[in-house]
Amino acid sequence: MTVLGLPDDITVALFDLDGVLTDTASVHRVAWTDAFNTFLTRRAGGDIGGRTDSLRPFTDQDYFDYVDGRPRMDGVRTFLASRSITVDDDTAASIADGKNDAFLAALARDGVTAYPGSVRYLHAAREAGLHIAVVTSSRNGEQVLEAAGLTQFVEQRVDGNTIVAERLAGKPAPDSYLRGAELMGVDPSAAAVFEDAVSGVAAGAAGDFGYVVGIDRVGSGQSDAMKAAGASIVVTDLDDLLAEN
After folding, report:
1. What order do you get walking across the sheet with 191-195 strand by strand?
2. From the CB of residue 232, how many other CB atoms can be counted at a distance below 10 Å?
3. What is the pTM of this model?
4. Are both 201 and 155 inside the same structural domain?
5. Is-contact 190 12, C-beta < 8 A?
6. Which residues pair with 157 in a beta bridge?
7. Distances (CA, A) of 226 to 16, 72, 184, 234, 235
8. DSSP H helices in the chain
9. Given 16, 68, 175, 239, the catalytic residue
């Protein structure tokens, strides 16, 4: 698979969705920001100026550190734990539902854009005989793939609904990617993981996959964090891998 910038023994590609194939990671980030800041403002009694440090506004760095790539409820719990905030299950679910409502509203309003470089890579992968699956923590994976016109490329899909139904541990645990490899009928060593989240890169490394590709669409140290988490290579767009040949 040298034409794709991958080792020759890789036969399956396991792609994360948001931020790898589609420009929806930014939509998720905005939706999470709205949901958490609504919660934090209410918890502070609406007094923004009088917030304690634990109730300071949610930031982009909070998203990358505690939420990006994780299943929805894991993201809620991980972020709240970072602020030493404890809530009951109903409150956590309310935050998660608020995030999803905001995401779906943006999806309906603005649609979905697939990265041109990713589309070029998908076409090249299919022509080269690489088998393709999507592994995403999003429970809206099917809708996003359909809206972006990418369903035609995908042979199997593991998404947030699969994770819940099969009680898989979310990223950074490797379980969802291991399930993807299982559905594709290959050993992890024959599969490459493609991720834009540090938690997803860590999942690929933990699962002993044959190759882990980090896609850095953020900058500001993200590439170094991905390499530290176990990325085999870090690129800024998927078609950079085609340019390597």
Report:
1. 156-158, 131-135, 12-15, 191-195, 211-215, 233-235
2. 19
3. 0.79
4. yes
5. yes
6. 134
7. 15, 21, 25, 7, 10
8. 25-43, 60-62, 72-82, 89-110, 116-128, 141-148, 160-165, 175-183, 198-206, 222-229, 240-243
9. 16
Give ∠ CA 180-185-191 in degrees, rounded to 5.
Answer: 60
Considering the domain architecture, whether residues 191 and 100 belong to the same structural domain is answered as: no
Q: Quick check: is 18 catalytic? A: yes
Query: Once rounded to an integer, what is the mean pLDDT over residues 163-168?
Result: 95
Residue keyed to tokens 């009694």: 45
Q: What is the pLDDT of residues 61-86, one digit of tens each?
A: 999 889 987 888 999 999 999 999 99
- The CATH number given to whatever domain includes residue 8 is 3.40.50.1000
For the question of residue 16 being annotated catalytic, the response is yes
What lies within 8 Å, CB to CB, of 53 at 6+ separation is: none
Chain position carrying tokens 């078609």: 239
Total length of the chain: 245
> What type of residue sits at position 44?
A
17-47 pLDDT per residue, tens:
989 999 887 888 888 999 999 999 888 876 6
Most confident range, picked from 21-35, 72-86, 101-115, 178-192 = 178-192
* Per annotation, catalytic residue among 9, 18, 60, 159: 18
Residue type, 7: P
Closest by CA position to 217, among listed 141, 115, 74 = 115
Domain residues for 78?
26-110
